[in-house]
Amino acid sequence: MKDNLQWVEQAWSDTFEKVKFTSENISARFPTMTSDGIYTDSDRLWGWVVGFWPGLLWLLHEKEDYAPFKDIAIQREDTMDAALDEYVNIHHDVGFMWQLTSIKQYELLGNEQSRTRALRAASHLASRFNINGRFLTAWNKNDVNDADPKGLSIIDSMMNLPILYWAAEQLDAPRFKLIAMAHADTVLKEFIRPDGSVKHMVEFDYLSGDVKHYHGGQGYDENSAWSRGASWAVHGFAMSYQHTKEERYLEAAMKTADFFIDHLDDDSVPYWDFRAPRDETTPRDTSAGACAASGLVLLSDLAPTEELRQRYLTAASDILASLYKHYGTYGDSSNQGILVGGTFNYPKGLGIDCSLIYGDYYFVEGLYRLKNKLETL
Ligand code: GLY
């Protein structure tokens, strides 16, 4: 296997060089998605994407010790304080926002202020727990469909749970972990279908806790299989197993991973929805591939047999290698993204075949994990 992963070192160093170059232009901004190769900024400081750029810089800095990346990451994290202080617009995506930034800075540099930020963010997330429905409420307003936000939960939430597991350990406060597990159990029951495909949005009655509706959300419809949602499930359940060692989360991670892998074609990068009607113009979504691949590297450490560990490692490597070779912008200095071919929101016609900062982040995270793995093989 080690021989099959030799491309990883080249991909890592090409990516480091690319980001050295693009960071001079992106610098102290919150890139979201590209238009004609130029990253547009998040129009909201509290937008769910703001942690990905500093998070990506931390991963590269950790391995390359390149101080300008660290400086930008710290500056971005400081700027995000306004969102925590404002409070009212904060939503469930505080995990994406402060896990990749503040927890990372605390781990690398021991900054106590970063630790406090992440604990505040975790407390906020815990406060979104609906006790009757046993789910984490996603948003305060809903601009995706006509669901009532008071009862809405979405599969993306699985990626936010690690900040709760972290807070439980930091404060020796199991309540954070219990909330995360109660939510994960609800997702297991209501979002994962018997075939391993995943629903995007479930609307509960916020008083009784009963399921009211399933919504297609960013997928094709309520019965389809939005590929980024599938990737959130694979990666999110793998992390819930990593933190709890509860077998049912490992089984969910493997079941959703098997669906994901079995629906890839020779390109190894998924279409935007595994079940949407398809013709020669149907876009793929490199961000779904990147997020799933990084989760699959993690799963290849956790799976119970050598055969399964190899299966997930091979799938992760195939996806990341295809992203690097077929979707990387390395020769194109006019493109600020690392990967093209991302799809943000197909039903709304937004962000089709662009670079997405979370696609770039999970691609770097996947390479980082593969690199760590190579060092131990
Ligand atoms: N979390 C929103 C998305 O995946 O587009």
UniProtKB/TrEMBL annotation:
Any one Gene Ontology molecular-function term assigned to this protein's record: chondroitin hydrolase activity
Keyword Coiled coil: no
Key words of the record: Hydrolase
Signal sequence annotation: none
A GO BP entry: polysaccharide catabolic process
Domain of life: Bacteria
This protein's record includes keyword Hydrolase: yes
Family statement: Belongs to the glycosyl hydrolase 88 family.
Record-given protein name: Glycosyl hydrolase
Protein source organism: Vibrio astriarenae
